[in-house]
Amino acid sequence: MSRDLWTDPRSADACARVTDLAPPFVDGECPEAVASAVRAHLMDCPACRRVVQEETALRQWFVPTEEVAVPAGFAARVARAAFAGEGAADRDLVVPAGPGGAPRAGGGETGRLLSFTMALAAVAAAAVLLFTLILAGRGAGPVDADQLDAGPQLDQNLERIEAENQALQQGLPTTEAK
Amino acid sequence: MAALKHMREPEPLETSPHGEDPTGDGRIEDAHLVQATLAGDAGAFEGLVGRYERRLFGLVRHYTRSAAEVEDIVQDTFLKAYSRLDTFQQTSSFYTWLYRIAVNTILDAMKRRGRSPVTAVEDPELVQRSGSGADDATAARLQVRPDARLERAEIAAITRGVMDELPEIFRTVLVMRELEQMTYQDIADTLEISIGTVESRLFRARAKFKQKLLKLHPEFAQGAEAGL
User: Fold this and answer.
1) How many CB atoms are closer than 10 A to CB A151?
2) Distance in angstroms (rounded) separating the CA atoms of residues B155 and B141
3) CB 3.0 to 4.6 Å from B150: which of A119, B80, B154, B200, for a disulfide?
4) Does A23 sit within 8 Å of B202, measured CB to CB?
5) If you average pLDDT over every residue of chain A, what do you get?
6) Residue A3's pLDDT band (boundaries 50, 70, 90)?
7) A68·B62 Cβ contact <8 A
8) Burial of B76 by CB count in 10 Å (0-12 exposed, 13-18 middle, 19+ buried)?
């Protein structure tokens, strides 16, 4: 028996040490030398025996629970889900197989569909915005030089006006006067 | 506190469905399955799942009675493990690593259900302040032992009811120690805390459990004069 833990097994210091050691002692976590010293102390100390009994009594509440039944095919389902790229998420899981045996499309399918829909909506919104900007740009953009060209008719009119002006200056009758 | 012995030898693992383990060491077989999974072998991952599914189902059952929720959480755990498999360093056993993921997944699920995962703080006086001084002193003196007439299922139901009232930080260490029979070293490795912290949390968790039990079921208290 180790005497290293306390100088006098009947001292208050020894009782304090044993009280501290009671939980790991009951849990079986004490080295054998320490456990042996505790056992020796308990032989002569009713107060510390009570402490150990309290620890033991409390542990009696933790009884082994009943066997847990794992659903058939669970491992195979999980492996399939993992290799299909389905990540763990709050509700983004493959729904366990129904009575028919085949896994139902569950949260994973819905999650991907939602993401796709949102992406599609974003693309559509961007396309509408771009189209609107293009239309707005056509209405307010700079005038094309070709739009200003009225063709040969304008040249002819300008020549006639020039001829009329010259006639007026020379006192000749003009076309308007006729 | 006297030095405590370290982790016991790990309990034997189940035989891999992928064949015999030539070394007889489950951990080497786990590493082989992990490598095969990373190489794209779905069957190897199925083997890992099959090896530990029962233990994880048992663990999660300590937190919820809903079969559907248990299955969701266990599946979630394995999917997370798969996604992080390349980060498994093999410095701890595969099950310790998997167990850690499971505990975090459970706590996340409890949080979604409205249970705060950590309501206890490291203040060592918290336990003393959590109830009236008289209640704590009384609880400390009393033995709280299941009535011998209670059936095992009744005891389990009472315990579950009390555990439901505990902060998750306390519930977790009690589940690991009392129900999963994990050593202090295993608990420390899984939760990535020191053995001293394990002891401290267990001490406070048991004190809290006893206090709650006496409040909910004062009929189980035995006086200080009893038992000696």
Assistant:
1) 7
2) 22
3) B154
4) yes
5) 76
6) very low
7) no
8) buried
Give the dihedral sign, CA B215/B219/B224/B228.
negative
B93 versus A151: the higher-pLDDT residue is B93
Residue A117: how many other CB atoms lie within 10 Å = 10
Q: What is the CA radius of gyration of chain A?
A: 49
Q: Smallest Cβ distance to B42: which of A59, A83, A89? A: A83
Question: What is the spatial distance between Cα B187 and Cα A80, in angstroms, rounded to a whole number?
Answer: 31
A7-21, A127-141, B178-192: the lowest-pLDDT one = A127-141
> What tokens were used for A92?
């983004």
- pLDDT (0 to 100) of residue A151: 57
Shortest CB distance from B178 goes to which of A49, A62, A70?
A62
Q: Closest to A65 (Cβ–Cβ): which among B72, B156, B227? A: B156
Residue A71 CA: distances (Å) to CA of A104, B38, B74, B206: 15, 26, 11, 34
Answer yes or no: are the C-beta atoms of A51 and A22 closer than 8 Å.
yes
For the record, the structure tokens of A14 come out as: 């020894």
Instruction: Catalogue the E-assigned strands of chain B.
Output: 143-144, 221-222
CA dist., res. B109 & res. B113, Å (int): 6
Tokens 């060592």 identify what position? B124
Residue A11 C-alpha, separation from nearest chain B C-alpha, in angstroms: 17
Q: Shortest CA distance to B75 belongs to which of A84, A100, A116?
A: A84
Q: Which of B16, B46, B149, B158 to probe by mutation at the A interface, max A CB count within 10 Å?
A: B46
Q: Do B227 and A50 make contact, defined as CB atoms within 8 angstroms?
A: yes
Residue of chain B whose alpha carbon sits nearest to that of A4: B2
Note the residue count of chain B.
228
Quick check: B93 and B27 in contact, CB under 8 A?
yes
CB–CB contacts below 8 A, A to B = 141
Q: Which of A55, A74, A82 sits opposite B45 (nearest CB)?
A: A82
Strands (E), chain A: none
A109, two tokens: 């399918």
